[in-house]
Specification:
Blueprint: H1 27-31, H2 47-58, H3 81-87, H4 90-93, H5 105-122, E1 126-128, H6 134-152, E2 158-162, H7 168-175, E3 179-183, H8 193-199, E4 204-210, H9 222-231, E5 235-239, H10 252-255, E6 259-261, H11 264-267, E7 282-284, E8 296-300, E9 303-307, H12 324-360, E10 376-379, H13 381-387, H14 391-400, E11 407-408, E12 417-420, H15 428-447, H16 449-454, H17 466-471
Parallel strand pairs: 2-3, 2-4, 4-5, 5-6
Antiparallel strand pairs: 1-7, 6-7, 8-9, 10-12, 11-12
Helix pairs in contact: 3-12, 5-12, 6-7, 12-15
The protein binds pyridoxal-5'-phosphate.
C-alpha cells in the first residue's frame, strides 16, 4: 500500500477554502524567521483519496470487532456499543474541564456513584478515579502506602513481588523508591508460604499480589498470606487487572487487601490497545482513605462539589479528573449488566477459559493442571523438543488462521508460555474454531515445522526481524 505522501499531487485538496478577505501580512516581520519554514511537506489529496487511504489502513488493523482476540491478561472483551452512545452524549463530550461544580452536577454524580459501585463490588472503603491506567494506579497505590508509613514514622524500604507478577509492579515500586524483593511461587503456582514468611520483616512495606495471578490461578492461601503480611505490620496491595475473574464472587476487601487498582479498560469493557486511553481507579481500605488523591468529589447540602480539603492526601496524580469518557463507558457497563450480569460475566469468562484449557491440554503442555480462572497458560516446550518450533512460531501461524495470537513468553516463570484469555463475550462456536486452529497448528508442527516457522504468509508483511523493527523502525517514506 502506498503512503499518503506518495499519492499526493500538487494542488489537490480535500476542502475548498474561500479566498481571503483580510489583508495579507508578512509573518516574518511579526514573529521573526526562525519559526517559519519555506516548505511544509504536507500531502495534497482529494477527499475521496483521503477517505480510501485511511479506510484501507484501518482494514489492516486487528481489533475485537474483527475477530477473536485471546490476549492473556489484557481482557480483550467486546465493547458494547451502548457504552459509546452514553459517552458521546453532548453533556459529557461538550464539557469544559474548568466548568464550575454547579454546572456539572450530573457528571459529579456519575463519578460519585461510580466510586460507590466500585467500593461495593470490591469491598473497599473508597475509590479514586484519577489514575489514567493500571500502571498509573499501581504508582498511586504505592505512593499512598509510602505516605501511610511516613505518617506512622516507620521506615520500611522494601516491597515483595511474586516472580509471576506483571513487570509494571516492580517498576511502580522502584519509582517510589522501594527496593523490590522477588517472592517465589510454589509448585501449584501460588505464593510459596515459607518463602514469604522468611522475607516478611518489619522492613517490608507491602506485598504486591495479583489474584488470580498471571498464571490464571486463584491464590488458595490468600487469607494466610494476608495474615502473614499484616502480622508484621505490612500492607497487602492487590493488582486488580485480573478482576474479570471474580466480579460478584469474591471481594478483595474481604480477603484482606488494603489497596487495589483496577483496569476499567480490561474488566469493565472499555476499548483499549494501541495506546488508547485507559482508567486505573484505586480502592483503599479505611486505613488509607486520608491519603487518596485530591480533588475528591464530595456531597454537601445535596450538592456535589470538589474538595481539596484532605491534608494527608498524596495530591493530584493526573490533570483534571482522570479519563472521564472511559469512566462513563465503564459506568454504563456496570449499570447495563447490573449485579447479576456482572457475576454472570465472570462465570462465563472462567467457563470459557477452562473449556479451552480442557480442549487443548492433550496437544500443548499444561504446566499447572488445575481449574483456572479467566485465563489458561500453556507451554510450547513439547513443540520445541519435538520439532524445534517455538511459541513465537505458533503465534505467527495463528495470524494466518485469522486470530490475534495469545500473550506469549509471559508469565516469565513458564518457558515458551502461551497465555490464553478468551473472555466471556465469545460463543462456544468461536472457542471451538479457535481450538480447531490450535490443534491444526499442533499437527502441522509435526508434519511441516519449516512451514510453521515461515508464518505468517497471509499478511501485508511477512515475518519481521522483531529486534531490528523495534530498534531501528523504518517509518520514513522515500521521496520519488
Ligand atoms: C495490564 C496489566 C497491568 C498494567 O495495566 P495498564 O493499564 O496497561 O497500565 C498491570 N498488571 C497486570 C496483571 C496487567 O494485566
Amino acid at each position: 500500500m502506498e503512503l499518503i505522501f506518495e499519492i499526493s499531487k500538487p494542488g489537490r485538496a480535500a476542502a475548498d477554502i474561500p479566498a481571503s478577505d483580510v489583508p495579507t501580512v508578512n509573518l516574518e516581520n511579526i514573529i521573526g524567521s526562525q519559526y517559519l519554514r519555506e516548505e511544509l511537506e504536507l500531502p495534497e489529496v482529494a477527499e475521496i483519496d483521503l477517505v480510501r487511504h485511511y479506510t484501507n489502513l484501518s482494514r489492516r488493523n486487528f481489533g475485537v470487532d474483527l475477530g477473536f482476540y485471546p490476549l492473556g491478561s489484557c481482557t480483550m472483551k467486546y465493547n458494547p456499543k451502548i457504552n459509546e452512545n452514553t459517552a458521546a452524549l453532548p453533556g459529557f463530550t461538550g464539557l469544559h474541564p474548568y466548568a464550575g461544580a454547579e454546572f456539572i452536577q450530573g457528571n459529579l454524580q456519575l463519578m460519585a456513584e461510580m466510586q460507590k459501585y466500585l467500593s461495593n463490588i470490591f469491598g473497599m472503603a473508597e475509590f479514586t478515579l484519577q489514575p489514567a491506567a493500571g500502571a498509573h494506579g499501581e504508582l498511586t497505590g504505592v505512593m499512598m502506602i509510602k505516605k501511610y508509613f511516613e505518617k506512622k514514622g516507620q521506615k520500611r524500604h522494601m516491597i515483595l513481588i511474586p516472580d509471576a507478577a506483571h513487570g509494571t509492579n516492580p517498576a511502580s515500586s522502584a519509582l517510589c523508591g522501594f527496593e523490590v524483593r522477588e517472592l517465589k511461587s510454589n509448585s501449584e503456582g501460588g505464593v510459596d508460604i515459607e518463602h514469604l514468611e522468611s522475607l516478611m520483616t518489619e522492613d517490608v512495606a507491602a506485598l504486591m499480589l495479583t489474584n488470580p495471578n498471571t498464571l490464571g490461578l486463584f491464590e488458595r492461601n490468600i487469607e494466610k498470606v494476608a495474615a502473614i503480611v499484616h502480622g508484621k505490620g505490612g500492607l497487602l496491595y492487590g493488582d486488580g487487572a485480573n478482576a474479570n475473574a471474580f466480579l460478584g464472587k469474591a471481594r478483595p476487601g474481604d480477603l484482606g487487601f488494603d489497596v487495589i487498582q483496577l483496569n476499567l479498560h480490561k474488566t469493565f469493557s472499555t476499548p483499549h490497545g494501541g495506546g488508547g486511553p485507559g482508567s486505573g481507579p484505586v480502592g483503599v481500605g479505611q486505613a488509607l482513605v486520608d491519603f487518596l488523591p485530591v480533588p475528591r468529589v464530595v456531597k454537601r447540602d445535596n450538592q456535589y462539589a470538589w474538595s481539596e480539603d484532605f491534608p494527608d492526601s498524596i495530591g493530584r496524580v493526573r490533570a483534571f479528573y482522570g479519563n472521564f469518557s472511559v469512566i462513563v463507558k465503564a459506568y454504563t457497563y456496570i449499570r447495563s449488566l447490573g449485579a447479576e450480569g456482572l457475576k454472570r460475566a465472570t462465570e462465563m469468562a472462567v467457563l470459557n477459559a477452562n473449556y479451552i484449557k480442557e480442549r487443548l491440554k492433550t496437544y500443548f503442555d499444561l504446566p499447572y493442571d488445575r481449574i483456572c480462572m479467566h485465563e489458561c497458560v500453556f507451554s510450547g516446550k513439547k513443540q520445541v523438543a519435538e520439532s524445534g518450533v517455538h511459541t513465537t512460531d505458533i503465534a505467527k501461524c495463528l495470524i494466518d488462521y485469522g486470530y490475534h495470537p495469545p500473550t506469549i513468553y509471559f508469565p516469565l516463570i513458564v518457558p515458551e508460555a502461551m497465555m490464553i484469555e478468551p473472555t466471556e463475550t465469545e460463543s462456544r462456536e468461536t472457542l471451538d474454531t479457535f481450538c480447531d486452529a490450535m490443534i491444526a497448528i499442533a499437527k502441522e508442527v509435526r508434519k511441516n515445522p519449516e512451514g510453521v516457522k515461515n508464518a505468517p504468509v497471509t499478511t501485508p508483511v511477512s515475518r519481521l526481524d522483531e529486534v531490528l523493527a523495534a530498534r531501528r523502525p523504518d517509518v520514513c517514506w522515500k521521496e520519488s
